[in-house]
Each structure stands twice: as C-alpha cells, then as structure tokens.
Design a protein that fits this description.
By secondary structure, the protein is of the alpha/beta class. The protein has helices at 8-13, 31-48, 62-70, 81-89, 104-114, 126-138, 161-172, 197-217, 230-236, 255-259, 291-294, 348-352, and strands at residues 26-30, 51-52, 76-78, 94-97, 118-123, 143-148, 177-183, 224-228, 244-246, 270-281, 284-287, 306-308, 315-319, 324-327, 340-345, 357-362, 365-371. Bound molecules: pyridoxal-5'-phosphate (PLP).
C-alpha cells in the first residue's frame, strides 16, 4: 500500500508521545471513545436482532474497519467502488456499495471485485442494473442487487411502490444480477424538527418494509431490507421487517449527531487540535484551523462551526480557509496566544476526509498514527 507523502517535519512530530506536544492543526482520534461507540452500536443491533453493516465512508480507515468487524459487523457499506476495492484488498469479504454505479469502466471493476468477494450493489434504475448485468453475465457472475426506495429524503430511490414493482419485474429478467433486497436512507431526519424525528425514522423503515411486502406478494424473493443513518438507528433497530442497519457517523460521532440525540459531546472520538495564533481584540481569539481543516459542513441541528472541548462557552463564530474565529470572554479566563484547543467538528466525515493521517490517542498519550487510506478514492 502506497503511503500518502510525509514530510520530515511531520515525521518528527509523529515521534512525540503527548497529545499536547503535537504540532497543529492535527486530526486526533481517541481510541477508548472510538471503541465505546463501536461497541454501543454493535450491542444495539445485536439486542434488536438486526445485522449491522456500518457505512465506512465516515472513517475510510482500515484499523477502524477491523474493529467494526471484530465487534460483530457482518460487512461494511461504502459509497465508492474505490472504497470497496480498498477494503476488499484488506480482507473485508462482504461489502455493500450503496451507490448507483454508472459506466463500463466501473462495471468492469465491479465484476473483478465481485469475482473474489461478496459484493452487493444498490441502485434505482434499469439503466444501471442493465449495465451491471451485461458485464456480469459476460463473466458468468450473478451479482446480488438491492433497489433503493426514496422514503422522504429526496435523493436517489424509486418514488412509488408501483415503480419498485416495475423495476423488480424488469430486473429479474436480466441475467448476471439477482434482486435480493431493498435499501433506503433516512437523510431527511437531519432536517426534521426534534419532536418529529422518531416518527420520521419509524416512517422511513415502515415505508421500506411496506414496499418489501408488496414485492413479496408479487413473488419476488426480498430477503434484505436495509436502512441507513445514525440518528434513526436507536429509533428503529428493532422494527419488524428491517434486516440490516447502515449507520456510519456513530463510529466517531460529532457535534451534529449529539444535537440530533446520539450520545453526548463526551462520546465524540474525532477532534481537531488547533492553537490560538492571534488575540486581536479582548473577546476575539483566532486559531489555526479553518474550513480546510474542519470542513465547511454546518451542523444541521444547531448551527455554528464546532465546539471547544472543555470550553463550551468559547464560541467558534466563523471560519475562513485557514483561520477560525473564537468568541471568548474578556479577562482572566481568556486564552493567550499559544493555547491549544480541541475542536469537536460539526461533521466528523467531512473533517476526516481533509486529512492524510490521524494521531491515535488514549487520553493524553499518542499511541499510533493511522493513514486515511480511503481518502481520495472518489471513483
Ligand atoms: C446510503 C447511506 N447509508 C448510510 C449512511 C450513514 O448515515 P449516517 O452518516 O447518518 O450514519 C449514509 C450517509 O450519508 C448514506 O448515504
């Protein structure tokens, strides 16, 4: 595996054993918190008797995938073929590509992958399934596929039960693919008001189960009913008819997930270390982390740009590319230049994706460094 390029000063930094000694800005992953999050979701799924197939687009990290599998996950979900290739090359044998793959080059790569691993694909159109079918048939493969149903998010997915029926009918006439299930993603929970989130999560699953039953009534062998999303997981884990959950962000959690009801800020395992580099006014502190370190992702449920661990009264008021502006109290409790701060990002997936390597810590001790191997695998 080719490592992302590392400069001499970065390698010197990596010899430091204390978190507080790290050069900033730095992405940091707290191992005990990570393991607690993995364990919590694994137990939730296990208690509910539902399979757990976490979305690995959140972490893109081989050691995290290993820990999820060791905790009982039967496979992983990915969005990109490149991610599937990476995880398969490192021993993950069961992968669901929850993304419509388009184009002969992708179908060829998919077939190569499917020849050596258990690969499922989700899509919502005859065109995509037909492309996969012709490539797979030519190689004597039969690739399991799932139809995506739009349950309210307004992204991909067939819109009606009749559309699902029609697609299922055309699909089952194709060689090289076999219809095994349905998928949905309840992304609209992120923008649903708090009092209605549980109801919206239940409605997403209920709708998918309803379409599955309609297809079964028509004679289709639908055995896999897969739902996604961290904020909906706790609400729907035990719902009759759901066979699989695909939460992703839970593994790190972030400021948005906490606002949406998943755990507390103390559960957030992925943070960005930054340093106060300017104090231009009594209530303004400027740090060395901006959108190129934290991402521009907003927190759909709370607004703002991130929380400062241990100083929730310091408000990250704005970000530019390389700067973050903190509103701080004037006087005694005000951070001087050189103060290290630990930011809980709005969206862990977006922040992770901006870094080549992550410092892996246990409390204050740096235990390891992990390469973000899946970074940049966008095709
Ligand atoms: C198709 C699909 N499944 C699952 C997930 C995981 O959701 P979450 O990030 O809420 O855990 C996502 C997230 O974008 C997704 O797009």
């Amino acid at each position: 595996m080719v490592q992302p390029s590392r400069r001499a000063w970065d390698m010197t930094d990596e010899m430091g054993a204390e978190k507080s000694q790290l050069d900033t800005p730095r992405l940091v992953l707290d191992l005990p918190r990570l393991d607690r999050n993995i364990e919590r979701m694994a137990r939730l799924a296990d208690d509910a008797g539902v399979a757990l197939r976490p979305h690995a687009k959140t972490h893109k990290l081989l050691p995290v995938a290993e820990r999820q599998i060791a905790a009982g996950c039967h496979g992983l979900t990915v969005a990109k073929l490149g991610e599937a290739e990476l995880f398969a090359a490192h021993g993950v044998r069961d992968l669901f590509i929850a993304y419509p793959l388009w184009g002969a080059r992708k179908w060829e790569r998919l077939c190569k992958l499917a020849a050596g691993a258990d690969i499922r694909v989700g899509a919502d159109s005859y065109e995509v399934f037909e492309g996969i079918s012709s490539a797979a048939f030519a190689l004597g493969l039969s690739i399991p596929v799932r139809i995506e149903v739009d349950t309210g998010f307004g992204r991909c997915g067939v819109q009606t039960t009749d559309e699902a029926r029609a697609l299922a009918r055309r699909l089952t006439a194709l060689p090289g693919v076999r219809l095994v299930g349905l998928m949905s993603f309840a992304g609209h929970i992120y923008r649903t008001e708090p009092a209605r989130r549980r109801e919206a999560a239940i409605a997403d699953s209920a709708r998918l189960v309803e379409v599955a039953e309609a297809l079964r009534a028509d004679g289709f062998d639908i055995t896999e009913v897969s739902i996604g999303g961290t904020p909906s997981a706790a609400h729907v884990a035990g719902m009759t008819g759901v066979t699989e959950m695909r939460p992703g962000t839970y593994v790190f959690s972030d400021r948005d997930q906490v606002a949406l009801g998943w755990g507390t800020l103390d559960d957030c395992a992925l943070t960005v270390l930054a340093t106060v580099i300017s104090r231009p006014a009594p209530t303004r502190a400027v740090i060395d982390a901006g959108t190129k370190t934290l991402s521009s992702d907003t927190a759909s449920a709370v607004g703002g740009w991130g929380d400062i661990r241990g100083h929730l009264d310091w408000r990250l008021a704005s970000l530019s590319e390389e700067h973050g502006v903190l509103d701080v109290p004037a006087g005694g409790d005000s951070p001087p230049i050189g103060t290290q701060v630990e930011i809980i990002p709005n969206h862990a997936c977006g922040a992770l994706n901006l870094h080549d390597r992550v410092a892996v810590v246990r409390g204050e001790v740096v235990e390891d460094w992990w390469s973000v191997e899946g970074r940049g695998l966008v095709r």
